[in-house]
Structure formats: structure tokens, C-alpha cells
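dumping the sequnces here before i forget
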Amino acid sequence: MLSQIAPDEDLVFFRPHEFIARESEQPAGLYHMLEGWACRYRTLSDGRRQITALYLPGDYCEPHWALGRMPSQPIVALTNVRAKRVPCQVPSGALADHQPSFWKSLVDGCERQANWLVTLGRRTALERLSHLLLELFERMRQSGLAYGQQCALPLTQMDIADLTGLTPVHVNRTLQTMRTKGLVELQSKWLRIPDVAALRQAAAISQADAVI
Amino acid sequence: MLSQIAPDEDLVFFRPHEFIARESEQPAGLYHMLEGWACRYRTLSDGRRQITALYLPGDYCEPHWALGRMPSQPIVALTNVRAKRVPCQVPSGALADHQPSFWKSLVDGCERQANWLVTLGRRTALERLSHLLLELFERMRQSGLAYGQQCALPLTQMDIADLTGLTPVHVNRTLQTMRTKGLVELQSKWLRIPDVAALRQAAAISQADAVI
DNA sequence: TTCCCCAAACAACATATGTGAATTCGGATT
DNA sequence: AATCCGAATTCACATATGTTGTTTGGGGAA
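..and the predicted 3d for all of it:
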């Protein structure tokens, strides 16, 4: 029954392109993603757009909000999203004690960003795409959402361009090259990686490095 | 007297290029920077290098370590560094209660990284340099280390290249352009910004945005 | 002062990626 | 089955940035 749902912990839904949070507006709560993808981004005044974070099932969106921050960049749903809303106002002491997975989520996000800086700053288009696809596959795998060497990938080539700092045209070109080389199979929002080791090499990821 | 220094909170010094922390090695503690600059970075196997964080006086290096993480990227001193070492093993509850500035440092670092992603992904060379110089000036100003419109900037053009994802040659070229346009004065490790508003515009920072 | 060395500055040329536009494809809707 | 519309694909061309190499400059050591 509806009345049995705890009043401060709701299930919420978003449609593609719907805002989950707006810049500098107090969000209704933290969202624990249950299903679907979302992203954080910034657009410059002339329309250039860069995605700065991707939220997949299992991720918290956004840990910072529990530390008293307001969103500094907007967040939108990329697909249909189902999430559990949990209030921001949890005292940080309680969070630390009761939600280790929450802290892990925060720090993981930071480390992913640090790796992402390397990708945007120093990797070529082919390396960026390889790195992105590996990271997404690995995150899906860790959430139990990968099947063998494949997983869902509900992004348009324009989304991928805004993630990798490239143009959609160049994403397309480079994807073609990768297909030709047998590095990936990618069609109708479905990703298959025939040879993970080969793709890691194409991404300029050193043997010892973690992808994420 | 030496004997009066608390045993778990030491003053430490580093020389330029000296490692403050190595990848995957337990650091001796957190460092609260008192003087000098340091950076975190990653190098790809062929030598390409990207700096992913800059530590200025007042910054904590690295908040994550208090959350049970090991360094995932090495950290080196860029100048002579003086810092206060504080043990990592502080229980997170105590940190939360007694060190709000510590949490601020952590979240500020995350937000800076998110902004930095936009810069590396979507801004031109001139915009990247403008953004970097504005951010550094603003951070120095907030630490009381700016004097009017100027502050120290102890970076080589190669450091700046590794921060902005450009080549040293192009950094030089672009800096010349900026000097010609009167956007910055930069010589012998000293930065002067004649017109902050003009530089913000050159950085493609929207009026409302924070630099950091 | 002289020497030395690293950083900065400069030049010519190469190339990865961007731009603008047209065409094709594929899934949804009627 | 016919239509529609966003996404993907392809093409020709433009340009920002990279590459390689040389030259100049300035501060520290002897």
C-alpha cells in the first residue's frame, strides 16, 4: 500500500531529457539510481556542451549534496530513470557510520573524474572512445548488468561526443575505424567488446592501471 | 622545543620534483600545505603527461586518504614545499565533527575537477589558459597570497602545458597572443591580470559562473 | 665576469579534428 | 504498407594544434 512507503524515502521516475536537478537549486534529495542512465553537464554560452559525470544503476546522484552543497551543474535523465530518493539532510556522522557504500560512491566518482581529466587532456579520439567504452562496460559489469562481453549502451553518438569532447562527426568516423579493426561492435544501443585486452591497449591504458 | 611537537603532527619539507606520494603506496599522512605548490599527475606509457590537481597553500593533500584510499596517481612538489603532516587514520566521524574545512577541501577539489573537465573537453587553447590563470589567481587571493591584481605563479610553461592538455610550444604561442591583447602580464614566475573581467570573457566563463 | 643550462621564444611544416552540408538508415506512428 | 523524424553515415574542405628543430634569453655557479 502507498501508505506504507516511508515518507522520506520515495521512488521517483524521470523521462529522457527531464531535469533531475538544476544548477543552484536545492534538490529534493539524493537519488540512488535503480534503473536508467543520467548525466551531469555544462554548456558554454555558445552551445558547446561537456558531460562531466554519468550516473548508472547503483550510483548515487549526487553524494556532495549530503555535504551541504547545491548542484553546480545541471543533471538530466538520458533514458527513463527509476530512482530511490533519500533526503539530503542526513547528518554526516550518521552517513559515515551507516552508509559506507555512500562514501565509496563519492570517492569513486572523484577518481573517475581524475582519470577522465587524463583522457580529455592527453588521449586521441580513438583512445578516448576506447577508454569510455571500457569504463562503461566495466561499470555495467560490476553492477551485474553485463552479459558476457556485452551490455546495454543507451547513448547517442552526440552524447558520446559530449562525453569525449569530440564532435559527433568525428565520433562516427572513429567508431567506424574501431569497427573495422574489430575493436568493438556497437549497434542499436548495444555494446560488444570482442577482445577486452585489445581495447585496453587501444585506450593507452597501462597494464597495471585500473580502467575506472 | 622539538619535544613539544605532537608526535603525530609533524612539519615536513619537500624539494622541487620530490615525491610527496607514490601510486598505490600508503602515504605517511595527509599534508596540509603551508607553503609552496605541488601537483598530482599521470603519465601514459609513451610519456604524455597530464596534471590532474594542483595543491596550493591551505589545501589538503589528499582528503581521500582519510577515507581509506591509497593514492591512485603520484604527487610531486613543484617548488619547495612546507606542510603539516596529519595522520590518515583519523576516524571519519571525528573528522566530520572537528574539521569542516577538511570536507570543504574535499568537495571543492571535486567541483574544481568537474569544471576542469569542461575546460579540457570544450575550450580552446586561449580559453584554457585564461581559465587556468583566473583560477590560480582566485585561489591565491582567497589564501591571502595575492597583492592587488597580481600573485606568484611558480610554474614553467611545460607545467602549464601539462595542466591544460596542450604542448609547451602552443602554450608559448597562446601566451604571446594574450600578452599582445593585454589580457595578462606573466614574467619571471609572476602573474598580473590587468582586467579580470576581460580575462573572464576570454575564458568563456559566463557571467554567473564561479571560476573555481 | 664568464660560463653553463634550462626555459622561453620563434619558425616551417604536418596532421588530427572541426565545420557545414547532403544522404541514408531505422524505428516509431498512423 | 506508408510516412515521418531523429540518428547515423558520408563527403569536401577549413583550421587549431602538434611536431621538429633552432635560436635567444636570463639566472645561478664557478
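The first strand of chain A starts at residue 10 and ends at 14.
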